[in-house]
Amino acid sequence: MIAAYQASSQARVNAALETLFVAPSPELNRLYDAMRYSVMNGGKRVRPLLAYAACEALGAVAEQANGAACAVELIHAYSLVHDDLPAMDDDDLRRGQPTTHKAFDEACAILAGDGLQSLAFSALLDPQLSGASAETRLRMVTALAYAAGPAGMVGGQAIDLGSVGLKLDQTALEYMHRHKTGALIEAAVQLGALASGRADATQLAALQTYAQAIGLAFQVQDDILDVESDTATLGKRQGADIARDKPTYPALLGLEAAKAYALELRDQALHALRPFDAAAEPLRDLARYIVERRH
């Protein structure tokens, strides 16, 4: 079930994303090539899937969330480009291919990431991608700016970089990951729900509880895969967190306890969706997928 939904959603968001990488002049071709390379070189598209599924859970059609889906994927891609830079995680491989600074150069990668961040907000406001009202789009921009910025993803990355070699307790580790990974996943669900034009406060609160649980589950499973998987399957260097002496859930809790915690978070997410009918089944499937995936 999830495979078919994932394939159709990936095709939808990829078609929308492709329209965004047309350089306005020949002088900018290389920059746009680097931006396109950073986004269109694979990826699970988990965040766009969540935006579409949240929109559909409220009875709207998935296409209404195209702007939201593009925006969260562009922010995600920009964060990966910058995370991979020598000054940060210094990675050479992403999605089984050379990282952007390896495929182009470091300066071009920095600018590509900057461009993708700005492009995300343009996509969210593009009337061709979103038919939401001006008031709703303002709420969506505000939510994305908060999630992507120093109070969200960027702040989480700052904490992560400052935590290398430290022994964090579970509360501190979760605080970091609710920002670094969870904030953008929460935003994906929120933006998709807002794009439906049908979300009330109670529904948004339930979806936020769902998103908080899967956002943390996603990171726990990432940490597990960093131990159990291999470079070819992951498409990035296996064991990188251990090599950098980063705090992880398996290191803190033990591998089996980390697996149990991922399942507990999945169940919390499913419980939050009890008020929703069968239209929310893709959200339920995604909660299961996040803790069952192998890459």
From TrEMBL:
- Return the similarity comment: Belongs to the FPP/GGPP synthase family.
Record lineage: Bacteria, Pseudomonadati, Pseudomonadota, Gammaproteobacteria, Pseudomonadales
Task: Output this protein's name.
Answer: (2E,6E)-farnesyl diphosphate synthase
Q: What is its EC number?
A: 2.5.1.10
Biological processes, Gene Ontology terms: phospholipid biosynthetic process; terpenoid biosynthetic process
UniProt keyword list: Isoprene biosynthesis, Magnesium, Metal-binding, Transferase
Would the keyword Metal-binding be found if you checked this record's keyword annotation? yes
Q: Does the keyword Nucleus apply?
A: no
Which cofactor is recorded for it? Answer: Mg(2+)
GO MF annotation: an example:
metal ion binding
Gene Ontology CC annotations of this record? cytoplasm
Q: Which organism is it from?
A: Pseudomonas spelaei
Q: Which gene encodes it?
A: ispA
Q: What class of enzyme is it?
A: transferase
